[in-house]
Every structure is written in structure tokens, then in C-alpha cells.
Amino acid sequence: MSIESLVFDETSRLNSKLIDLSMESQKVIANNMANAETPNYTRLRLDFRKQLANAIQTGDIEQVSDLQPKIEEDTTNAPGNDGNNVVLPEEMNDMMQNSVFYNLATQAFKTRISILKSAIK
Fold first, then answer.
1. C-alpha to C-alpha distance for 67 and 74, rounded to whole angstroms
2. CA-to-CA distance for 95 and 100, rounded, in angstroms?
3. pLDDT for residue 59
4. Which residues contact 51 (CB under 8 A, 6 or more apart)?
């Protein structure tokens, strides 16, 4: 077994993909917050959680690696008088949840690297 196969296995690819998804989600949330006062702006969201849950449930890690999130308009909130449907407290909540998700993924990656370093020593 080579070092490369230990470092770049399915778990590492999954962690990497989760970190990428979290960073993309952060960009979408920041864009929503930046446009909170833009007339007729419709909130956007990055949809990957359903696809991720399905991939994990079926145990198909390759499906996770190939996951392509979609940026979609979110019309769940009614637009205000200016036609904008961004609710800042909800965006802040989404940002905090995404931050926790990112921190968990990066911590898992760091722990894995630590274990590999210890095994090498």
C-alpha cells in the first residue's frame, strides 16, 4: 500500500468535496446578504444537501465526488414591498450553520492527517 493511496482515498476525497461545497455555499450566502437591499432581488441557495444525503444513504462515495451543486432561486420567503425576499436573520443563521459544517469537515481532514503523520513516525 502506497502513501498516496492512504492520503488520497475515498474519505479524503469526500472531505475535500465537503469543504468545497461549504465554500461555495458561503459565497451564495454572502451574495444574498450583499443584495439584501437590492430591489426585486430573489434569494439564491446552493442545493446539495439532498443529493449528499442520498449519496451517503446509498453508500456511493463516487456519487459524492461527482456531486454538482445547483444554485437555485429560493422563493420560500414572500417578497417585501421592494420585491426583495432576503431576510437577513435567516442569512446569518445559514452562515453560522455553514460555518459549523465547514469547521467539522476541516477538523475531520486535520485529524486524518494527524493520524497519518503519527503512523509514519
1. 20
2. 9
3. 75
4. 63, 67, 69
Give counts: helices (H), strands (E), the chain: 5, 2
Nearest-angstrom CA–CA distance, 68 and 26: 16
pTM: 0.81
* Residue 32 neighbours by CB under 8 Å, 6+ apart: 43, 44, 86, 91
Closest CA to 98 of 45, 55, 60, 54: 45
The total number of residues written for the chain in this structure: 121
Q: What is the pLDDT of residue 33?
A: 97
Mean pLDDT for back-to-back runs of 10 residues, the chain (121 residues):
59 83 94 96 88 77 76 93 96 96 92 86 81
